[in-house]
Amino acid sequence: MKNLKKFIAIMAAAAMTFSLAACSSEKTTTSSDTKKTEESASEDNKGGDLFDIANYKSDKDKSEWTIAVVTKDNTANWFKRMEIGVNEFGEETGINVIQKGPANADAASQVQVIDDLINQGVDALCVVPIDPGAIEASLKNAMEQGIVVITHEASNQKNTLFDTEAFTAKDFGAAIMDALAKDMGEAGKYAMMVAYTTSTTHMEYANAQYEQQQKEYPDMELINGGAIPSAESEESIDTSYERAKELLKTNPDLKGFTGVASTDCPGIAKAVEELGLDVKVVGVGTPNEFKPYVESGTISTIKLWDPKDSGYVMCKVASMILAGEEVGEGTDLGIEGYNSLQLVEGDNRCLIGQADLTITKDNINDYDF
């Protein structure tokens, strides 16, 4: 971390001396760096001191570290479950951990939470972005101050040392579609819901669903001419209910529905039952919240990962970087599903586990969250 701050100070002085006004926030070059091309913005986090994890090793004892987790909406059941994992990590390691988030899923409010934590001088930020683009400047500011930045559900976040994922979005989206297709007899019209079109992983899941349907289930059809998504829930069960009800009324031949935000399917299922329809629903969420609809048969399958583990994983990776430990291909985080991480480099460096869960009426009582 000392090296990183020294580097930043030198670069700032050089900029003042030589008036390097042409340097941009995303395409900065130095005489010691390999010249970057403009082929891809992802080149920004594949080299250079700002993205060299060795520069983030802390000089402090771990008892003095503070790792902050920032969620999309700290009141949502999904993130309450995440906080359990965050707190477990703190209890096991003796490291100070905190979890904060806006009272609702608002990108501007999340930026404010992040900026406040930066000003408090935390050692690491672990963020689940509402809109990755909206927080780029704040995360870059954090990294320039020597703060470790880790993200989750943000495979296109540029200003992060690592994005952590439970699985590949392509495999997960395909599995959601396979479950829906089975329920629908591989035929008929269906709809998709995401929280926001700016939610990176939600759109990746949705696109992967559509790709799988086009490839494997030609007798199925996405409504609205294949527009993705069919609706946005805005991370609200009430909104998902209203949007689903509108779609169900305007598309009386609808046979299936997917939702990839944890707030989607409860609203969709409520609308389906209220209208007395036989529409198959598959999506992402927490077992306890979905249980009544799973038991009634309205929701047949829950596809998910455990947010408790995701919170723990982000904190673990951040702590390893602060301790100067190596993180990358094959890293074992000591958690089931994250025993041999896959490193994928794209817009950023993604650490990917094998931690997907499938819950149905047959096993829902095995899960209590």
Describe the structure.
- GO terms for molecular function: carbohydrate binding.
- This is Monosaccharide ABC transporter substrate-binding protein, CUT2 family.
- Residues 33-46 have a biased composition (Basic and acidic residues).
- InterPro entries: Bact_Solute-Bind_Prot2, Peripla_BP_I, SBP_2_dom.
- By secondary structure, this protein is an alpha/beta fold.
- It has two domains: 2-166 and 307-355, Response regulator (Rossmann fold, 3-Layer(aba) Sandwich); 169-304, 3-Layer(aba) Sandwich (Rossmann fold).
- It is 38% helix and 17% strand.
- The chain has ten helices and 14 strands.
- Strand 6 (188-194), helix 6 and strand 7 form a beta-alpha-beta unit.
- The two termini are 38 Å apart.
- Mean pLDDT is 90; it is low at 5-44.
What is the alpha-carbon Rg in Å? 22 Å
Largest sheet: 7 strands, mixed
Mean pLDDT: 90
Number of domains: 2
Report the count of strand segments: 14
Taken as a percent bin, the fraction of beta residues is 15-25%
List keywords for this structure.
Rossmann fold, 369 residues, seven-stranded mixed β-sheet, 10 helices, 2 domains, alpha/beta
SSE inventory with pairings:
Blueprint (H helix, E strand, L loop, with lengths): L1 H17 L47 E5 L6 H17 L2 E5 L6 H14 L3 E4 L8 H9 L3 E5 L9 E4 L3 H16 L3 E7 L5 H17 L3 E3 L8 E2 L4 H14 L3 E6 L4 H11 L5 E4 L3 H10 L2 E6 L2 H16 L19 E4 L3 E4 L4 E3 L10
Parallel strand pairs: 1-2, 1-3, 3-4, 4-5, 5-13, 6-7, 6-8, 6-9, 9-10, 10-11
Antiparallel strand pairs: 11-14, 12-13
Helix pairs in contact: 2-10, 3-4, 5-6, 7-8
